Amino acid sequence: MRSSRDRSDDSALPLIGIYEISKILGATLDLDQALREVLNVLSSYLAMRHGAVVLNDDQGKPVLAAVTGMSLQAARAGALKYPFDAAARVISTSIPMVVPDIAEEPMLEACAGNAEALEDERIAFYCVPIKTTEKTLGALSVERGCDGGAYVVYEHDLRFLTMVATLIGQTIRLHRKVQADREMLMDDAKRLQKKMVEVAPVVPVRGLEDVVGTSPAMASVFAQVQQAAPTKATILLRGESGTGKELIARAVHAQSQRARKPFIKVNCAALSETVLESELFGHEKGAFTGAVAERKGRFELANGGSLFLDEIGEISAGFQAKLLRVLQEGEFERVGGSRTIKVDVRLIAATNRDLESAVAEGSFRADLYYRLNVVPIFLPPLRERSGDIPLLAGYFLDQFNRENGRELRFSPQALAVLGHCYFPGNVRELENCVYRTATMTKGDRIDELDLLCQHDICLSSTLWHKRAAAEAAAPVPPPAVPLVPGTGRVSAPIPVPTGPLSAAPCPAAPRAAEGAGEGDDPDLSERERLIQAMEKCGWVQAKAARMLGLTPRQIGYALKKHNIEVRQL
């Protein structure tokens, strides 16, 4: 006979088990893993063995979702003799089943071989429905051994398993709702993306007056902005740094129904997590040292309008959960406050990070990614719309002239040189190049020789060449081999000299050279092509460099390399 103290110790086990199970179900979004760990807890704390969870499939047929003692794959392959008829009865009637001895129940005859009963030990079978307030989703079943003469209170075990099944049912319902919401968001995003492609852009576009570009890539961006701006959908602007994501965000706001409301912007990368929380949500007086007065956050200030979160990929994991709640519920509390504040804000986010890789690595929440990536708009880098470079250069020069009271203009040769530059810093780098050159030009005309890259002192190009050299030294596939100018044939590129004190010229994207003749022999050697280009240009190195898509320094190095004497005409 067991003592009363032993019974009191055992009575605490179900409470501990419920506590552990609730922690498991709330700690992960992996449903299969959660169900497997719940069964392990039942086995560890309550000496229950051969546990299983079955759920109805799309056809209403019960299938195994989690088991103990073996892999789920092996169990589904037939290693586990599971009484599906008994589970189906429990699911259809929503009435629990208790069998004190499975050996005496014909319905459980198939699974009697699973239990390894000791002498004078009976194996009891419990099966309870997994249900919510709406419907029954499946069943939880366990087997438990007991001595033939022991006092067994089946009602207590049944009540405990019913509570566990209720927790499992609520978790399954939540997981399925999240899955359905994600699929709906993805379908909406695909539908909007398809409509954006079909809509032809209208020029000029209201709100895009400061966005310069007539290339097909920018025309596609304009069309997407026109299609998505009037909706309430969250916009995610993707693209490299310096491609003009903030200008596009302002255009989205200007074309939306919220155009008369505030447009608030925040750079998430410039603030720490605590400061960012105070900036976005505000704080109450006395919430922390220095909080001498109540302060509204950016969400409150943008109520009814649009909030632009730049560099959204840089926020911490802790703040991602707080931001997700605002996006889902539209409500938050100020730092140090308890009053819930509801807002109506249209979110526009931007990032230059690969969020898909961040989600796969676990540094960015998948649920937040799906909330943000409703309507993605990709902004092309400047190298993919090189035809816009002269327009952008002219725009920035006009802006410089207005600010400084000058009347500078570009020569065609200077614009041609700019058009051959790679500009990895995109529009921002081009703007800096124009302002720098305009500032240092003494006359009223900017010629090609006024550009720093023509004197091999462009510091930005030195930076990018060093990065390119580092990437070339890394174990990665080699870059594409450039084409022979004017031929379309593959050729080895002319090497560029490097040195600790030398500044490399601006990197140029491979393109057809200016003035290259269609009759050039593609079988000529590199030395013969150089001589041919120099003869066509009257042995002027600068002209030959433009023809071949190179810089004067590159052409000079190539002439020395092949021991070609420059003729004086």
From TrEMBL:
Task: Say if the entry is tagged with keyword Transcription regulation.
Answer: yes
User: Which Pfam family, any one of them, does this sequence belong to?
Assistant: GAF
* Residue segments, region Disordered: 501-523
**Entries under Gene3D superfamilies matching the protein:** 1.10.8.60, 3.30.450.40, Homeodomain-like (1.10.10.60), P-loop containing nucleotide triphosphate hydrolases (3.40.50.300)
Which keywords does the record carry? Activator, ATP-binding, DNA-binding, Nitrogen fixation, Nucleotide-binding, Transcription, Transcription regulation, Two-component regulatory system
Ranges of Low complexity composition bias in the record? 503-515
Which SUPFAM superfamilies does the entry mention? GAF domain-like, Homeodomain-like, P-loop containing nucleoside triphosphate hydrolases
Positions of the Sigma-54 factor interaction domain: 211-439
Q: How does it assemble?
A: Interacts with sigma-54.
Q: What does this protein do?
A: Required for activation of most nif operons, which are directly involved in nitrogen fixation.
Name of the protein described by the UniProt record: Nif-specific regulatory protein
Which organism's genome codes for this protein?
Phaeospirillum tilakii
Q: What taxonomic ancestry is recorded?
A: Bacteria, Pseudomonadati, Pseudomonadota, Alphaproteobacteria, Rhodospirillales
